Amino acid sequence: MLTFMASDSEEEVCDERTSLMSAESPTPRSCQDGRQGLEDGESAAQWRSQESEEDHEEEDPDRYVCSGVPGRPPGLEEELTLKYGAKHVIMLFVPVTLCMIVVVATIKSVRFYTEKNGQLIYTPFSEDTPSVGQRLLNSVLNTLIMISVIVTMTIFLVVLYKYRCYKFIHGWLIMSSLMLLFLFTYIYLGEVLKTYNVAMDYPTLFLTVWNFGAVGMVCIHWKGPLVLQQAYLIMISALMALVFIKYLPEWSAWVILGAISVYDLVAVLCPKGPLRMLVETAQERNEPIFPALIYSSAMVWTVGMAKLDPSSQGALQLPYDPEMEEDSYDSFGEPSYPDVFEPPLPGYPGEELEEEEERGVKLGLGDFIFYSVLVGKAAATGSGDWNTTLACFVAILIGLCLTLLLLAVFKKALPALPISITFGLIFYFSTDNLVRPFMDTLASHQLYI
Amino acid sequence: MTLCAVESQLASGETARPGQAFFWLVSLLFSSLIWFTTATLIGNKDEPREKYLLIFGVLISVLIQEMFRFAYYKLLKKASEGLKTINPYEKAPSMRLLAYVSGLGFGIMSGVFSFVNTLSDSLGPGTVGIHGDPPQFFLYSAFMTLVITLLHVFWGIVFFDGCEKKKWYTLLVVLLSHLLVSALTLISPHYGLNLVLAYIIMVLMGVWAFFVSGGSCRSLKLCLLCQDKDFLLFNQRAR
């Protein structure tokens, strides 16, 4: 990442990035600057303060370089790997938490998203059946249909990517983000205004939605301050998750969550899995995977970069699923490249290696969406109980921690969904059925444990 | 390598708090599982039996919580040792810091679980105590939650210190005081007595934790009079 910061013109740096980052100039102190350059605004401040303390401890300028670079002592590599783990965990906690907070707050206050108003065409079987067996069967069938749609979409995307139909893909992404940013925002805003009984006239509404959507399109697909881009990505993930929570019937939602994690595991780890192929193709071509659709906590600009090296893809890259971004209704794609991976270290020689730095972490938007769906569903159907929601929230965060840890150890694409969703599901069902009666009984007798 | 990575993440203070919160959650899960299975096995639901069952549940829960605190201590210890073997020059987070953070994690999780449902109910319509129950229900819950959270923090510090210095009686004292505080809540209609005793226990534990983490009367005085060189205000005044 530092590589292209250094090579590129300073003015672009000043325009696009946060002021904190643009203030950094690529001085010969490569490691320090790079480290600062690559992190987002908040952590850059931390690095600044730590810099003075760390000055005397660093003899090795490559200390924070991505591990695996040839020529580095193995102990150093391990240490770097471990350093990555803890820091990146925190950098991802915040956006995931924010997304979940938005979803839970909306679910708890706006009735619209918990009312049943029909289902998506991907889940045609209704769950209003008299018998439990029939309901279970219907939800399994719904899941099969949904997963097959997802698989088809992913394979379609991989095929398009392989045959370099970039225009088609970009057009698709733009259409879907248009829909999310304008249509869903309009609906969301309408429902929120209805809930709080606030009147808004159409011209104001038009102006608000237009500004929001236009700035979002620019930030996500072109250039904009990192923080704003992150905020927009969080918002569109939340909107998408809300749509799922509204339109997926109950049992189908849980079965789909389980099935998606299994699919994710398979798609990312199997040698012929579509996500893995996508990631590998992107790495071979040295291109970042649709940067507009991955949440990254550090700069991922590729503007002006004549030749991208894989190091610019980020140390811990969690590719997402671009299709997720695609609209929910017609081209629902695969939930996520909930992949987490580190690109193979650059075989690029020389000075560029020296400047590699700790990059930010990237997590696919599909992961955000499914985490929020789980927590939102827990909030919507957990008998109005906050304990269940909190338990799912903690479980997902711990799963994310563990996944990042595994990422730091294995250094390749890893699915981010399975561990978190498994923990989340276990905790949802056990908290709802076991812990809730216990805590309720305790609370009614006013006992504290 | 994997184990070292696990350990280092835990050893870094940042992830210790959600880690401990997770452990508390798991301990709660186990204790409710035990309570639930016992309740199902015993069967009939007459009032005194339910109350005894609940008391049993509370005791088991306290025991399991302390067990999980110990388990977390062991995990953190292994993590710091692993980190030290990988890199002997790096300053690992001190055990005291980890003790504080983990106690905080426990406390926050415990407090939130006890109180959040009450909070959300308090937003709705209703009159507290209309059927003859004490009207200070919400205040009592709030203060009790506060004292439990602070107690968990202090217990965490004292507990970890006892484990580090192999003073096993410390663990016993923590366990007994936790049982005492929980048992006190059983006399629930007498809010005043309950709260006062709990706060007294908290102050005692707080003082103990203060001395255990290296404070002393002298350092307290220096701090309060802003003469402590390490303390922030000292630098302010020097200007």
Notable features of this structure?
heterodimer, A: 449 residues, mainly alpha, two-stranded antiparallel sheet, 4 strands, globular, disordered N terminus, B: 239 residues, 9 helices, transmembrane helix (chain A), Presenilin-2 (chain A), endoplasmic reticulum (chain A), EC 3.4.23.- (chain A)
Q: Helix and strand succession of chain B? A: HHHHHHHHH
What does the average pLDDT of chain B come to? 82
Helix content of chain B: over 70%
Q: What are the segments of chain A in which pLDDT stays under 50 over at least 5 consecutive residues?
A: 1-72, 299-358
Largest sheet of chain A, order of strands side by side?
1-3
H and E order of chain A: HHHHHHHHHHHHEHEHEHHEH
Radius of gyration of chain B (Å) = 21 Å
Q: Helix content range of the residues of chain A, please?
A: 55-70%
Q: How many DSSP E strands of chain B?
A: 0
Q: What class would the helix/strand composition of chain B place it in? A: mainly alpha
Terminal CA distance of chain B: 49 Å
Q: What general outline of chain A do the C-alpha atoms trace? A: globular
Number of helices of chain A: 17
How many individual β-strands of chain A? 4
Radius of gyration of chain A: 22 Å
Structural features, described:
The complex is a heterodimer of chains A (449) and B (239). Helix content of chain A is 65%, strand content 2%. With 449 residues, chain A is an all-alpha fold. Chain A has a domain at 77-297 and 361-445. The N and C termini of chain A lie far apart (50 Å). In chain B, helix 2 packs across helix 4 (95-122), helix 3 runs antiparallel to helix 6 and helix 5 packs parallel to helix 7 (191-212). Chain B is globular and about 60 Å long. Chain B is built from nine helices and no strands. The longest helix of chain B has 40 residues, at 47-86. Chain B is an all-alpha fold and 239 residues long. Chain B is 79% helix and 0% strand. Chains A and B meet through helix 6, helix 16 and helix 17 of A and helix 1, helix 2, helix 3, helix 4 and helix 5 of B.
